[in-house]
Amino acid sequence: MFVEHEASVGELTSQERRDAIQSERRILGNVVQCDGARATISAYADDIDGAVTGLWTVGKMISINLGATRTVGLVYAIGKSDRAWSNEGQNPIEVSIELIGEVRDAAEPGAKPIFDRGITTYPHIGAVAHRIRSHDLQAVYDLAGRHSITIGALSQDEAIAANIAIDDTLARHFAIVGTTGVGKSTAVSLLLRKSIVARPDLRILILDPHNEFAASLPEYCVRVDSKTLDLPFWMFKLEEFAEVLFRGRETVPEEIDALRDLIPIAKNLYRTPNSGAFLRRGGDGLTADTPVPYRIADLIKQIDERMGMLESKNDRPTLKSLKTRIESAASDPRYRFMFNSRLIEDTIHETIGNIFRVPHHGRPVTCFEMAGMPSEVVNSVCSVLARLAFDLALWSEGKLQLLLLCEEAHRYMPADPRLGFAPTRHALSRIAKEGRKYGCYLGVVTQRPGELDPTILSQCSTFFAMRLANEQDQAIIRSAIADSSASTLAFLSSMGQREAIAFGEGVATTMRLKFEKLAAELIPGAARHEEDTLKSGEVDLVAIVDRLRNVPTHTQQGMPFAEVVDSSRQAGDPDYRKPQPSRIQPDEDFDMRYGLKPATFGLRPRSG
């Protein structure tokens, strides 16, 4: 039995559990105060010879020996009562710790120690405190056989792996928060890579506002942007379609009512061309929200016919305004992904299969790149994708496991309801509240948790909190963490790169960790930054203007403003001549206003 020379209470721990060469200074102090959550330890900052040991530091874990059990605590404050340092003799200090739980030895010889968050026996006055053993530290973060992945190492002991329970982390949703530049995107990329390996059946859809994740997941990812996205307008619900038509502004109730009446008629005309404007009532009746194809030309035709009716005389200004909105949206180059198809076909199977990777063909991740998209497009598309993700998981009866990862989530589900698109908020909130029952999971990444919808944030059961300097953001995290680990958040403003405090269902107990280091080429945004640095310093103004107008650099049919410009000549030069726009005659079989065939879609062919 080993007894500290200056201590009156021995450590009731068999010598065989220690390393033979371990220093006798392992006993560091004694408990002098304790309550239900915290304790104070009396110790010395230096040894008998006057050398400062540095054994007590903030953030370290210690163990208080109680015989059969050992209480585990986290050092969150150190102080000297008289606030003075003496070079004569030892300097007594007070160490404040937060009680986390207790470790007890297993009944079977040689078995691993067992950690319990609850405390059955509290430390008594004079109980011996010492540095925690590695075996006990491993027991604190042991996941008790749950399916786990390794994402890094513990900050207080880099020899011990930091593991998370991947199934619980995904199924109960997770959030990664931290100020800009601390490594959130790198942590996300690491988590996704580990999740794909651990869960091969998982499909992942990333809402990527900075176009940076596709390059970091090249072997797993399919890239989708506004040019390659094929999301037909008829898959939008009425309120999502209205967001596009009204460009994010407040809607006009009369126009919405007209759309609610006329869109089902247009859908019925597509299904049964000879039925006229009569809707079938019953179980298979069509509504404005039913994802059934219809033609914009038929919708315009119904508006024209209603304007021609005598009883609609008072509604003509409303209908005319609605017609103008629809025509404007259909010809807007920003909405090509909705109205680009020349032939309206029922492509819902191909659309959903491509976006949600069914089948995935070895690439289960879809990156939806939103950089450069106007806000009303982002709002509508995010709403459609979130709604489809939940419905797919629901009707697949758990066979399809989906993770919807929302990067910069505060942009499209803000705390202020006046700033966000209500259908997007509703669709994401539905996943957060009910998604885990059907296999639809939510991952939230944000640098401003204080600006995020608290309803959605509260549904995330696992948090990875990286460095946060804002007091409001820290308060949000402080309200989510357990009271027994609240002092851990004192490190939020001073943590280093790739460091995080993990707490919630996915970890055994609150854990300060450092994420694994990714290869330089796999860091999100690194490839694009390297490509930009290699480019020449010359600025191509013509290409910039074409991208500003959201049109390709070559001449487009029906877009006279996309003409070729001689950048070497400027207006005012003597030999400056503005080139004549090349007028491409539309084919007789097509109505270029809506990209529809008159013979196919019921429009009267134009006479010569």
How are the elements arranged and paired?
Elements: E1 27-34, E2 38-44, E3 61-65, E4 69-79, E5 92-104, E6 114-116, E7 128-131, H1 134-140, E8 148-154, E9 161-165, H2 166-171, E10 174-177, H3 184-198, E11 202-208, E12 221-224, H4 238-245, H5 253-271, H6 296-308, H7 316-331, H8 336-339, H9 348-355, E13 365-369, H10 375-395, E14 401-407, H11 422-438, E15 440-446, H12 454-458, E16 462-465, H13 471-480, E17 499-504, E18 511-515, H14 526-534, H15 541-548, H16 598-601
Parallel strand pairs: 10-15, 10-16, 11-13, 11-14, 12-13, 14-15
Antiparallel strand pairs: 1-2, 1-7, 2-5, 3-4, 3-7, 4-5, 5-6, 8-9, 8-18, 16-17, 17-18
Helix pairs in contact: 4-10, 5-6, 5-7, 6-7, 10-11
Given the structure, what is the number of helices?
Answer: 16
Largest sheet report: 11 strands, mixed
State the share of residues found in helices, binned by percent. 25-40%
How many β-strand stretches? 18
Give me the secondary-structure category: alpha/beta
Numbering strands along the chain, what is their spatial order in the largest sheet? 9-8-18-17-16-10-15-14-11-13-12
> Measured on Cα atoms, how large is the radius of gyration?
32 Å
